[in-house]
Amino acid sequence: SAVISQKPSRDICQRGTSLTIQCQVDSQVTMMFWYRQQPGQSLTLIATANQGSEATYESGFVIDKFPISRPNLTFSTLTVSNMSPEDSSIYLCSVSNTEAFFGQGTRLTVV
Amino acid sequence: GIQVEQSPPDLILQEGANSTLRCNFSDSVNNLQWFHQNPWGQLINLFYIPSGTKQNGRLSATTVATERYSLLYISSSQTTDSGVYFCAVDRLRNSGYSTLTFGKGTMLLVSP
């Protein structure tokens, strides 16, 4: 198993600002994944972060809006840029070898 | 892409009742997982079950990969079982790594 620490756990932000979410894993992993869960919805993959290369984004998500850093094998950040109320969601990071494990999530409210 | 359908979408139970949640998927998958999302948003791993049957306390799960479905059984439900149950399947990308596709979940409410 993997222990994933994600912070902040929640935040309330003004529209037009940016928030950076941090994800720390207790072991080295090749891939880290970022998901978004809009209110009342399921989880949707935003991007996959591989250490040493640019993140791979899913359809509908772009780097300018959700820049990702992956400076080493245990850490990643996701930034939600130029936020609007539609960005209010839970953001989760995940790692997987065979079984996937998730951080506790960041509940973001944009006002 | 692969489709994951969960049923029922909502379920209300009296404490002590049993229930079965279903997950159908549209294509062959490498793996399948069941999660419970608690009211604080945290995803708790329940089962990693690409095939066969597993049991953990009052919960058990069965995946029939050849027929592309999985079942989650909850027996003697408790109020702490309330939350959303997600099924997620793991598909191998052309890039060589796997990503999870989630169903829409089953919202369970267990009343005292």
Could you explain the architecture of this structure?
The complex is a heterodimer of chains A (111) and B (112). Chain A is mainly beta and 111 residues long. Chain A is 0% helix and 53% strand. Chain A is built from no helices and eleven strands. Chain A has strands at residues 4-7, 10-13, 19-25, 31-37, 43-50, 56-57, 68-72, 75-80, 89-96, 100-102, 106-110. The termini of chain A are far apart. With 112 residues, chain B is mostly beta strands. Chain B contains no helices and eleven strands. Chain B has strands at 4-7, 10-14, 19-25, 31-37, 43-48, 52-56, 59-64, 69-74, 83-92, 98-102, 106-111. In chain B, the strands form two sheets. In chain B, strands 2, 4, 5, 9, 10 and 11 form a six-stranded mixed sheet that branches. The radius of gyration of chain B is 14 Å and the shape is globular. Classes of the chains: A mainly beta (111), B mainly beta (112). The interface between A and B is medium-sized, with 24 and 22 residues.
